[in-house]
Each structure stands twice: as structure tokens, then as C-alpha cells.
Amino acid sequence: MVSEQPSRASQVLLLAAVALVGLNLRPFITGIGPLAADIGAETDLDLKGISLLTLVPMFLMGVFAFAGPFL
Hints:
elongated
């Protein structure tokens, strides 16, 4: 009979994968702030456009977080 319980090694591997994905996303989320003036100058975005650049990734992560358990 095959056990339905995940092994300890697979749990640790999953936790490590989640941590690595989180570390990989951190520069993407925080990278816009210091570059906001340069991005605005290059693209002619006003403050509303630049604020959307910082809002949209956070908003989408919040919206799609509910899909995580199903995935």
C-alpha cells in the first residue's frame, strides 16, 4: 500500500522552493521605487502612472493568492 502522506524530504524541498521564489520576487517588487524618477522621465508617466507600476504587481499577487490552494 502506498502512503498518502508526503515525505519529510518533499516537504523541505517544497518549503525551500517557496522561499527561493519569494527571494526572487523581492527585487521585482521593491525595484520600482528607487527608479521611479528615471522611469517617469523616460516614459513621460505622471505620478498616477508611476503609482500604478507599484500597485499592479502587489494587487495581482493579492488577487491570485486565492488561486494558490487550487494550484
